[in-house]
Design brief:
Layout (H helix, E strand, L loop, with lengths): L7 E2 L2 E4 L3 H12 L4 E4 L8 H4 L4 E2 L10 H11 L6 H9 L1 H10 L14 E2 L9 E2 L5 H13 L5 E4 L3 E8 L2 E9 L2 E6 L2 E4 L20 H8 L4 E2 L4 E8 L11 H5 L3 E3 L19 H15 L4 E4 L5 H7 L1 H9 L9 E10 L2 E3 L11 E3 L4 E2 L11 H19 L18 E2 L5 H14 L6 H11 L5 E2 L4 H22 L17 H4 L1 E5 L6 E4 L26
Parallel strand pairs: 1-10, 2-3, 2-11, 3-7, 11-18, 17-19
Antiparallel strand pairs: 4-6, 5-6, 8-9, 9-10, 12-17, 12-22, 13-16, 14-15, 15-16, 20-21, 22-23
Helix pairs in contact: 1-6, 1-12, 3-4, 7-15, 13-14, 13-15, 14-15
């Protein structure tokens, strides 16, 4: 493999092409900043494109709703770990994002009178989700990609794989990337990771194949602090047919009146929660799993026929087609569904402006952990967060007096990628199956400890500079961190459920779990000040972590 020491320099380098990365690039272009957008597939290959439901924003279109109610729902879903200040600011910034998207050309669904059509989803007390049929994410991606094509100062690099962060004197100064089998270095005083989630850590996921957590893995190797690694959200209703992908059956279906049925055709969700099918995702997913275990089945049924054929065809054409492609006509019979890994609440620990603990490195979107989602994301808050944080980071970067500039005379540092045996497809397939079984919806200490002993104790070696091998190494390392955090959190909270500790324990664990490479890890007080991130160096535990409650 050939190598060029320096490929190019930019004011800002963005990794990722979802709503967070693309909207940020557009804003920076308006400010005259020279920006590069790196994506390992095509621009449209992102979790944003796959999103169905929409964006949760209080626009004033629903007279019964307001940001205070949205905040209450977000805090309730987060199970005590949501940062109220961060959540309030993001929610109250929603209308600004709405105006921005509409100005760029996005047409949200409206009725014949021109009023916005709003959907209600699980955990929401009111209808507040803006949408574009059942392909809201695709509509957002198309509008942003079109706007990006008109930008004059944005360089777009498709099918370029980000390998690692470059650091110098304690600052992030760029990226090491693979492109056409060449290992290249791109320098910039600001790097923004908008690289999405890690659904591919699990064998069953609604996420696309690109969702291997590369940005989170890179940040960890470079020494950045991660948070809340134990909180992985499983969507309750993904298509469950042998040989078929776990296609998402949007929560808006249940919000519109679809029913969950057991093998006898009986509704069961109200057995588990007073809100039935509209309880939060963690509750509904575990309810479905419980019924599957009771019945010894691989799926339950989602009956969308109560919505009426005309409404189904009008509002959910893509879901109808996806089902029919696999021999299921949802107008004639229920859809077999089961939970699948869907969204990662953890990630790179940032402050309310998207800054990580590593100077020069920002993180936005699903790869970041701002504190909005807590232990369980409220439906349709993800696109809201990604868009709002893109606008906030743009303002922060544009407003900086001067960024730290790298001096090429100094040594540029890049961490080595090490892995026990995450390169073979047979090994990684087995690993992902075990992750789903042991560190998925239901966990217990014995299973987590055994998994750790089986997979994480072997001697590590350097990973070859091949995309598939590095992706596999990233999956293995992130699985290890999820496993460790899940083992240490000896309680059940939100998306994290321990069968051996089924109760929530606020006395010990109403705190966020932080971890960094080569540092002692522990639980930080929920009230930890974000500015303390700036002082993190070699020992995370010194300032940010409380010894009290560590277990």
């Amino acid at each position: 493999m050939s190598q060029r020491k320096l490929y190019s320099r930019y004011d800002v380098v963005i990794v990722g092409s979802g709503i967070a990365g693309l909207l940020l690039a557009i804003e920076l272009d308006l400010a005259g900043m020279r920006t590069a957008v790196i994506c390992k597939g095509r621009l449209a290959d992102s979790n944003t494109t796959w999103a169905q439901g929409g964006v949760a924003i209080c626009t004033g279109a629903n007279p019964l709703d307001d940001p205070a109610r949205h905040l209450e729902d977000t805090l309730a879903a987060g199970a005590g770990l949501t940062d109220p200040a961060v959540a309030r600011e993001i929610i109250e910034s929603g209308p600004v994002l709405f105006d921005k998207l509409e100005a760029l050309g996005l047409d949200f669904d409206r009725d014949k009178a021109g009023h916005l059509e709003l959907a209600r989803e699980g955990g929401h007390c009111q209808a507040r989700v803006l949408h574009s049929k059942d392909a809201s994410g695709r509509a957002i991606s198309q509008v942003l990609i079109s706007a990006l094509s008109r930008c004059k100062r944005v360089a777009i690099f498709e099918e370029m794989f980000a390998v690692d962060l470059l650091t110098q004197a304690g600052h992030c100064i760029g990226l090491r990337v693979l492109h056409n089998e060449n290992l290249l270095e791109i320098l910039a005083p600001r790097v923004v990771l908008a690289s999405g989630g890690l659904g591919q850590v699990y064998s069953r996921t609604t996420n696309p194949a690109i969702a291997t957590g590369d940005g989170i893995a890179m940040a960890y190797r470079a020494g950045a602090v991660l948070a809340d690694m134990e909180f992985v959200q499983f969507h309750p209703t993904a298509l469950s047919l042998r040989g078929a992908p776990a296609s998402l059956m949007t929560e808006a279906l249940r919000g519109s009146g679809a029913h969950l049925l057991d093998r006898n055709g009986e509704r069961f969700a109200f057995r588990f929660h007073k809100d039935g099918e509209l309880a939060t995702r963690d509750v509904v997913a575990r309810a479905i799993l419980s019924v599957m275990q009771e019945e010894g089945s691989d799926a339950v049924s989602l009956d969308i026929r109560p919505l009426g054929a005309a409404a189904i065809l009008e509002n959910y054409p893509n879901i109808v087609q996806a089902c029919r492609n696999w021999g299921i006509d949802p107008l004639a019979r229920p859809i077999p569904v089961a939970p699948a890994a869907h969204y990662f609440m953890g990630g790179i620990y940032t402050d309310g402006e998207g800054r990580s603990s590593l100077p020069g490195l920002y993180a936005i979107g699903e790869c970041a952990s701002t504190g909005l989602h807590g232990a369980n994301r409220l439906a349709s808050n993800s696109l809201l967060e990604g868009g709002v944080m893109a606008l906030k980071v743009a303002r922060s970067i544009i407003g900086e007096a001067q960024a730290w500039l790298p001096r090429t005379a100094l040594r540029i540092e890049s961490s080595s990628i090490l892995s026990p045996d995450y390169c073979s497809s047979k090994f990684i397939d087995s690993f992902k199956e075990r992750m789903f079984d042991v560190a998925g919806l239901i966990r217990n200490g014995g299973g987590l400890a055994e998994f750790s002993a089986d997979y994480f104790q072997s001697n590590s070696q350097r990973v070859p500079m091949k995309q598939k091998a590095i992706e596999s190494a990233n999956i293995g390392m992130l699985g290890m961190l999820i496993n460790k955090a899940a083992f240490l959190r000896k309680e059940s909270r939100g998306a994290h459920w321990r069968s051996d500790y089924p109760a929530m324990d606020d006395a010990k664990f109403a705190k966020r779990f932080l971890i960094a490479k080569d540092c002692e890890s522990g639980f930080a007080y929920k009230q930890s000040r974000h500015y303390e991130l700036r002082s993190l160096t070699a020992n995370v535990s010194r300032r940010m972590l409380s010894a009290e409650g560590r277990d």
